[in-house]
Amino acid sequence: MSNCPFCAQENASQATVCCSCARDMVVPSSLLAERDDLIHKRDKALGELMKAKLELEAARRAKKLRYV
Q: What is 3-53 written as a DSSP string?
């Protein structure tokens, strides 16, 4: 027996679709690889965004110090 990752209903071990909510219980490896790639790209973009925010804040602080 295996549990559905969406509704937690018990299903037969070889089930590919949940008998309760009818959602796919088996995800193709190509979709898993695509998801992992998108997660990696998202994390990289978030890192770049944080770096840019820190640089912008430092530039704003430097500008304020010049005019004081």
A: E-TTT--EE-TT-SB-TTT--BS---HHHHHHHHHHHHHHHHHHHHHHHHH
Alpha-carbon gap, residue 47 to 30, rounded angstroms: 26
* 3-class SS of residue 56: helix
pTM (whole model) above 0.90: no
Distance CA 63, CA 55 (A): 12
21-47: pLDDT as tens digits: 999 988 888 988 999 999 999 999 999
Is 51:37 a contact under the CB 8 Å cutoff?
no
User: Sign of dihedral through CA atoms 52, 53, 57, 60?
Assistant: positive
